Amino acid sequence: MPCSLLANTTTHEYFLDNGLKLIVKQDHRSPVVIQQIWYKVGSMDEVNGKTGVAHALEHMMFKGTVKVPAGEFSRRIAAAGGVENAFTGTDYTAYFQQLHKQHLPMAMELESDRMRNLVLTEEEFSKEIQVVMEERRLRTDDQAHSLLFEKMMATAFQTHPYRRPIIGWMNDLEQMRVSDHQEWYDKWYAPSNAVLVIVGDVKPAEVLAFAQKYYGNIKPSSVPDLAERNPQTEPPQVGIKRLWVKAPAELPYLLMGYKVPTLKDSQNDWEPYALEILEGVLDGNASARLNKTLVRETHMAVSAGAGYNAIARGPGMFYLDATPSQGKTIEELEQSIRLEIDKIIQSGITEQELSRVKAQVIASHVYQLDSISAQAMQIGRLESAGFSQQDEAVILEKIKAVETEQVREVAKKYLTDDVLTVAVLDPQPLDKNSPANKSINLRH
Predict the structure, then answer these.
(1) Of 130-134, 230-234, 415-419, the least confident
(2) 383 is known as an active-site residue
(3) Considering the entire predicted model, what is its pTM?
């Protein structure tokens, strides 16, 4: 019998005998429920020569089982008035359906069926891999900013699998075989490597009974735990890296990435929380430093921003990006950004800035509670990265406890040239007949 690990007024956790973790969160404001199944496997688990297989299999998961023919899964969900799709990341692959609560058993029956009963055929694969390759062309090869980001990651990371694109290298997609999908599916799609997240107008006991009925009879299989997987360790960077990418675009673009830590211990780490605050000081709204100084005051840039994600299985990157204003050069823009960073390193941030960013974090957390989808996403992201959904409250409190001096410390420690990669988009004339102007249905 499954064992309940946590039971509060809204969230319950269970483990089924086959290793599947079930998390149920109640939200009774409307008669709607979302089911998300998160597999703890993504592009970082791939090997050279077979990049893109995690995402390509995500497409194939909609191609049918013995009991449910190709297209029938989506048809049934749509007939029930629901929506469904899937997404692949570096650290996970996830599938979801959102629909009226009365149809949850049907959704669970469909999702559990394709966990181990997927039928992979050469016919369906040969058609779908062409869709994946076209998706790569449209969303990366023909999108200058996406292409720059891809090439920057391949330069910034020397050995870690984060250097490879989620969608895969085109040559790997061209060489991919249906047997690669079968091998990936057999290895990673198992109850013990999945987290089932149910959020909405439900009763935990009923959801548990449904999970036992539909998922409980799936045979367990051995999958390496996250802690047992050993992706190549990234060697220390020992100096600035620079690259220039030529691609059709209207304007040049600057992307700077610093290697920084991600969260490993939610209770005892502090640097990732300070980096989250630093991101908010630099970006987030009109009063953030990059927008205020570079866009509104000096008119050095038409846009400028920062990005950082503390929740990841692998190493982190702190991003700064900007598009120069007419008459301004990339070199001038980079120096202006460096000046803003140096101001923080030398003088720190103000208590007013710190309070503003903390208020934004709290507001974002509150707004998230308005959406069952956002609630489920937060749970799934934490669980897939090796954390517990219970860490969400800890993370929020730790961010609220960050002090101004800690923000200055992480800026001084990590925003240095030794761990910096600078990527510049050199705009080329736009081709009006570019394939980017074509349309194709990339939905599964």
Answers:
(1) 230-234
(2) no
(3) 0.93
